[in-house]
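Researcher: For the annotation table, I need structure tokens for ATP-binding cassette domain-containing protein. Please keep the output clean. Sequence:
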Amino acid sequence: MSEAGGSVTAVSVIEARELTKTYGDFTAVDAISFDVAPGESFGLLGPNGAGKSTTMRMIGGTSLRTAGTLSVLGLDPERHGPEVRASLGVVPQADALDEELRARDNLYVYGRYFGLPRAYLKAKVPELLEFAQLTDKADAKVTALSGGMKRRLTIARGLINEPRILLLDEPTTGLDPQARHILWDRLFRLKEQGVTLVLTTHFMDEAEQLCDRLVVVDHGRIVAEGSPRGLIQEHTTREVVEVRFGSARNAEMQAELAALVADGQRSRAGLEVLPDRILLYTDDGEAMLEEINRRALNPLTQLVRRTSLEDVFLRLTGRSLID
């Protein structure tokens, strides 16, 4: 059986129906529906302020919903908060580690908050430090760790109770490329172990790397849902041509380029005018670029690339994921 906003299965670990959160006259989450299957890596993709973090807080039972229904592992997180949280791991946007404690002690103390036995933690803490590639930093204070190390320690902390679901809110924001790739590898390993991942991000490459399936959200509403590749195939063309004519000429070139894109192209072809460049969506970027040059339109810069989730969002909303 299926329902708008996601396929319904008897084994879904998260089911949201018309989930809504308002603050006075402001609607942060606007009647969204989705499902997450066990072992799936599920993403909420959208710009800052789209309602992603609010949705995560409702799943974790730390924010009450205004309307709709929500089930996590078969339980309502508002009515069964402690039971739900016992099976969740949470990685918030901010690391919130105790800066004066050693890395190992951050894990140990957090485990005691869960009421986990000392004998269990004595074995679990070294295991998690090894998973996070922090064994050699076990006795280092958090203040001595790099940003990537702190993020890995925060993920290790979220795994202290062996959660069935790990919630990750913007897991790699602020990290350099190398640190992001290390973190992605750790998350892949968790997925291979059967942990369900639910993450928010506004990085399209992160969503494409980590997510089996995702919803694209904007202004609190779901505007698209599917696998990363499926969304690209459904909503845009195979390639995009980026051209720049300079701030004075970009607007005046719009009409001629729009006619060029429409000539013999599929319905998903189109044109987007951004402040600094013009995007032409086409199935054959090189042929489009050759035609632009044949007509002597003389762009200052030109580039052909594959379309991405960033393009999907732009085509659906008319604005970029990164505001």
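Researcher: And a one-line annotation?
Model: The domain at 233-317 is CATH 3.30.70.980 (Alpha-Beta Plaits).
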